[in-house]
Write a structure and sequence with these properties.
about 350 residues; alpha+beta; Beta-Lactamase; 4 domains; 5-stranded antiparallel β-sheet; 14 helices; disordered C terminus
Length: about 350
């Protein structure tokens, strides 16, 4: 505060003024942030307990010393030049900047600094408040590393990944998903997946999945048929999970989408083969094992010991029908046998001739 301001204080208010100064001094000492005051030659006039604790100096080491000692050497020149230009520096009062400071141990830490200036007569005084942001920077770095780690996972996975906000609108998608649906990122961002991916042949599949997600919090191995941007139908398997904040409020969802078209095609082919085999099996009944058959009359003995004509046995134990015919060799034998018995019956070339004379 300059002299003109102080001279404007009425005697009856001087006590309140000093009380205010004492209160400000108590507040400075109680502040968790480091506070330093210096004259225009950068000599330290005041430092609070937080500054001494932060930098590791005693009050005797600080008072009267050049406050540039608190700044690393590589930026000390710029700091001193800035303060030497008092008119420019004065206009920056209240500005908050991130910079570094130098501790007594030689270590450097990141700080957030807010400077202020005031005049007393022709003299310019400088003050600064330092807030240690080492913990914040550590957390920011950890978060950045986690984001990079998640991004690598996001980009490396073969399944399509989709992130939606609390309204269900797409906010992020992986390269695998873009390739799967033959589209660009701008085709998806800000849109609802139900309006993009649902195939006309199964319009209820995606709404059902969303209803399950909202009621159960997650959906696993949900299968649906979707359409791509080039109008190709694909079969997909989805795993979805809701994201919630610390108040259990839904903030969005993450979906993993796998193209199972090839697997479904193999399943369809397998089902067709199984059906064909079942149809064939329904038409065939096999005889297994050894059949005891008479070498003379060709009858077959069944499991109960009875002898049956082979025709009857086959009809009983299979679904095959029996028709009768005669092979060329047997036909020749029969014809010769009939000829040898006389002219009662003559069979030639598949015809039968009978005369009264022969009867």
């Amino acid at each position: 505060m300059d002299d003109s301001t102080k001279k404007g204080i009425a005697p009856q208010h001087e006590g309140a003024f000093h009380e205010k100064e004492a209160l400000l001094s108590l507040m400075a000492e109680a502040s968790p942030d480091a506070i330093v005051l210096a004259d225009e030659r950068l000599r330290i006039l005041y430092c609070n307990a937080s500054l001494m604790a932060l930098f590791g100096y005693t009050q005797d080491e600080l008072l009267g010393a050049n406050c540039a000692m608190l700044v690393p050497e590589d930026i000390r020149g710029g700091f001193e030049a800035f303060l030497e230009n008092s008119e420019v520096a004065y206009k920056t009062s209240g500005t908050i900047v991130e910079t570094r400071c130098l501790l007594k141990s030689g270590a450097e830490i990141p700080i957030e600094a807010s400077n202020f200036f005031w005049k007393k007569g022709n003299e310019l005084f400088f003050g600064a408040i330092f807030h240690n942001i080492s913990e914040r920077k550590r957390i920011e770095k950890e978060l950045q590393n986690e984001r990079l780690f998640l991004k690598k996972i996001f980009d490396a996975t073969g399944d399509g990944l989709l992130v939606s906000d609390e309204q269900g609108m797409i906010v992020k998608c992986s390269q695998s998903l873009l390739e799967m649906f033959a589209c660009r990122e701008e085709d998806l961002i800000g849109k609802h997946p139900m309006k993009i991916f649902t195939d006309d042949t199964s319009p209820q599949a995606t709404p059902d999945a969303i209803q399950m997600l909202m009621s159960q919090g997650s959906v696993k191995n949900f299968q649906a048929r979707c359409k791509t941007f080039n109008r190709r139908a694909i079969d997909v398997e989805m795993n979805m999970v809701l994201m919630r904040d610390n108040t259990d409020t839904v903030t969005g969802s993450v979906s993993s989408i796998r193209d199972i078209s090839e697997r479904k095609e193999h399943e369809r082919q397998r089902e067709e083969i199984i059906k064909e085999l079942q149809d064939a099996l329904a038409k065939v009944q096999q005889l297994e094992g050894l059949l005891p058959i008479c070498s003379w009359c060709k009858k077959v003995r069944d499991d109960k010991g009875y002898w049956q004509q082979i025709e009857a046995y086959i009809s009983l134990h299979t679904k095959a029908g029996i028709t009768h015919g005669i092979c060329p060799e047997c036909a020749k034998k029969v014809l010769e046998e009939l000829k040898s018995k006389g002219p009662l019956t003559l069979i030639q070339s598949g015809t039968q001739n009978t005369s009264k004379k022969d009867v």
